[in-house]
Design goal:
NADP; 9 helices; seven-stranded mixed β-sheet; ADH-like_C; ER; alpha/beta; oxidoreductase; six-stranded parallel β-sheet; GroES-like_sf; about 25% helix
Length: about 325
């Protein structure tokens, strides 16, 4: 099969399209014919050496959609439309930048019967599963809350806006550029705040009592400020690293953490584990909402399989403004 491999740290040009052997599935695995995959900063960081050294041959990619080739357990049938994400992809096993991928069965989700193209389906898994993992237990069954999405123009930020709105929440989205406000409003934001680095006071102007939930996509650089936008018993969940290293220097629990608020971190590596089984995920429901046009499509551009390096350049130059996918 053809797959992209990385053999050394570097820029987009270190991505090499090669013929490599298919991987036969073990008892707890499923082999999938990849039809399309989404692109993520995690793959950029992996290629650049920011997520560990490149030892040997690495196939990048942390998500894909396609058709089942082989599942010895019979849980998934041959030809069934599925999605997969995480489960060690690009770290402990070959990733999804390939014609085929062999993955843990626990990280496979049924998508049969959804009337969406492969490209549209590929825009969903990693972004929406991350948002569900971070927010689902806070907002899925409690509509009418106010949710702040800090860093909302990223692909996962846009997914958070759309998901929170679909769950019946009031959504405040932030962006550093006023030119992005119309896009965020179109996908579900009730209010858009221009992020100057310190916006808690502006948020209080929109939601005087504070917000119930803050999703931090920017990360450590702005999390103290986001905490100050919470109401008592509100929760801030950090999922992003857009603002740099995930380190808070000299965190003062009494001064930096407002009274009766909570700070959490969610990493998508938890997806598919016993703590967060993907059988419980709403991904198929989300896909149906997008097919019904109840939720917006977040896909902004599709690349051909031989053009992945240019897709990486687009992400690195911060020109994506939504989800990029690759058609295989």
């Amino acid at each position: 099969m053809k797959a992209y491999v990385i053999e050394q740290v570097g820029g987009p040009d270190v991505l090499q399209l090669r013929d490599i052997p298919s991987v036969a599935p073990k008892a707890d695995e499923v082999r999938i014919r990849v039809r399309a995959f989404g692109l993520n900063r995690a793959e950029i960081y992996r290629r650049a050496g920011k997520m560990g050294p490149i030892a040997g041959q690495v196939v990048p990619g942390i998500e894909a959609v396609g058709e089942v080739i082989e599942d010895a357990s019979g849980l998934f049938r041959t030809g069934q439309h599925v999605a997969t994400a995480m489960g060690g992809l690009q770290f402990t096993r070959n990733g999804s930048y390939a014609e085929e991928v062999t993955v843990l069965r626990s990280n496979v989700i049924d998508l049969d019967g959804i009337n969406l193209s492969w490209e549209e389906l590929a825009a969903l898994p990693e972004s929406y599963l991350t948002v569900w993992g971070a927010l689902g237990r806070l907002i899925d069954n409690v509509p009418g809350q106010t949710v702040l999405v800090r860093g909302a123009t990223s692909s996962v930020g846009q997914a958070a806006v759309a998901y929170a709105k679909a769950r019946g929440q009031r959504v405040i989205a932030t962006t550093r550029s006023a030119s992005n406000a119309a896009r965020l409003t179109a996908i579900g934001a009730d209010a858009v705040v221009i992020d100057t680095g310190e916006i808690a006071e502006q948020i209080r102007g929109v939601a005087p009592e504070g917000v119930d939930v803050a999703l931090e996509v920017v990360g450590a650089a702005t999390v103290r400020d986001s905490l100050n936008a919470l109401k008592p018993f509100g929760t801030a969940v950090v999922i992003g690293l857009l603002g740099g290293a995930p380190v808070l220097d000299n965190l003062h629990l009494m001064n930096d953490l407002p009274n009766a608020t909570r700070l959490a971190f969610f990493g998508s590596g938890l997806l598919g584990t016993p703590a967060l089984p993907l059988a419980d995920s709403p991904l198929k429901w989300i896909a149906q909402q997008v097919a019904d046009q109840t939720m917006p499509s977040l896909r902004v551009k599709t690349f051909d399989f031989d053009d992945v390096a240019n897709a990486h350049r687009m992400i690195e130059n911060d020109r994506a403004q939504g989800k990029l996918v690759v058609r295989v």
